[in-house]
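task queued by scheduler; priority normal; single chain, no ligands, no partner chains; default sampling; output format set to structure tokens
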Amino acid sequence: MKTFDARTLAHDTLEYIRIQAVTAVQNGKYRIREVAKIFGVHRASVYRWLKLFRKHGMDALKEKPVLGRKPALDDRQQKILTLWLAILTPLDFGFESILWTIEIIK
């Protein structure tokens, strides 16, 4: 089984994976290598989660608030923009390029 880029998963999903993985190892049901394979993550991630758990408890594995600026567009606007970018080109708006750039999108 290949590993995947966990950054593509929702934060609550990642929290669930971390807690389940650590619980499986702590209960003695699975070894770290097996847990990594089951969840499709690198075994170094499982080691890191175990270290966090042993040092700070289960709360260390929980989802943390995401810091940073709020998006300029709400969810509805982002979906509409994504749709436009998929089906239209800058030529449709009078630009000379067929490639989307951040300046054209602005």
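post-processing summary
- The helical segments are 11-26, 32-39, 43-56, 75-87, 102-105.
- The chain has a mean pLDDT of 89.
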